[in-house]
Write a structure and sequence with these properties.
TIM Barrel; 7-stranded parallel β-sheet; 13 strands; alpha/beta; 4-stranded antiparallel β-sheet; 10 helices; elongated; Aldehyde Oxidoreductase, domain 3
Length: about 280
């Protein structure tokens, strides 16, 4: 998949681990011996981060012999990237590469499981990952969820108009917001207006006010099943988002409610992928 990760970000990954030498390799006298570094999964996974590891290989003096691209699903035991270079350079690349692959293959695989669960109940539902990723990992986290079949909910504050309770309180309450919706629409004609609701009644009021997207926070599946037909009856083009406590173990149940989008932070957090690094002297 095509996804831009800057050289400066990759340099930061390297600098976190190498500052400034590999002391162990130095004292052991590990040097110019030609050596391979490859990675294989101990489980079935969705690959993510191989392009970045290939760049790290190059920066540290390794050549990539082969690589499977991000987004590919591989079976247990399959080697999906392999590099070759001097032993001392292999040891510099080893741990940084492992961290990238374990972390972001983990996110991509978890996302794939979530997407499959939700779509088993509703093939049209979209899975959207919120911007609550671990700080400092934004671009790689977004790449990983997309490799797994999800999409960003929104990338940053300037991307969409999404009005929360915290905004509504500051402008004087829900009645004031409903009064302002025509003005909001005129001020940003290229953007859709989304509002989060915490109760059924507030959600219906907002739909009647003419918003484009309603985000329903922590609604139970049975309430969503009632809300969807009523809201779509008011506005057939309305986009309905379910958010709050949506996880892989309940994704199918929420997918079956008829909402258009499931928004979740759960994709980012969990067990890393179980990946084995193999280092061999040629």
């Amino acid at each position: 998949m095509s996804f831009y990760i800057s050289d400066s970000e990759l340099e930061k990954f390297i600098e976190e681990d190498i500052s400034p030498i590999d002391l162990t390799s130095y004292v052991l006298g590990i040097g110019d011996e030609k050596t391979t570094l490859s990675f294989r999964s101990r489980d079935k996974i969705v690959v993510c981060g191989t392009e970045e590891v290939e760049s790290i290989f190059k920066k540290l003096g390794l050549e990539t012999e082969f690589m499977m691209p991000s987004g590919v699903e591989v079976e247990e035991g399959v080697t999906f990237i392999k590099g070759v270079g001097k032993a001392r350079d292999v040891h510099k690349a080893w741990r940084t590469s492992s961290k990238i692959l374990e972390s972001f293959c983990g996110v991509a695989t978890r996302t794939s499981h979530f997407v499959k669960a939700a779509k088993s109940a509703n093939s049209n539902v979209n899975i959207a990952a919120t911007r609550k990723n671990m700080p400092g990992t934004k671009r790689m986290a977004l790449k990983a969820i997309m490799a797994g079949g999800a999409y960003p909910h929104r990338i940053g504050l300037s991307e969409t108009i999404l009005i929360f309770d915290e905004h509504i309180k500051l402008i004087g309450g829900l009645d004031k917001l409903i009064e302002k919706i025509p003005e909001i629409r005129l001020s940003s004609l290229e953007k859709k207006v989304a509002v989060e609701a915490h109760t059924y009644e507030d959600g219906i009021r907002l739909v009647k006010a003419g918003i484009d997207i309603i985000q329903l926070d922590k609604f139970k599946p049975e309430d969503l099943k009632k809300f969807v037909p009523e809201a779509k009856g008011i506005n057939s083009k309305l986009v309905i988002v379910a958010a709050g406590n949506i996880r892989e173990d309940n994704a199918e149940e929420y997918g079956a409610t008829g909402v258009d989008i499931l928004a979740t932070s759960a994709l980012y957090f969990g067990k890393p992928a179980d990946i084995k690094a193999d280092i061999e002297k040629i």
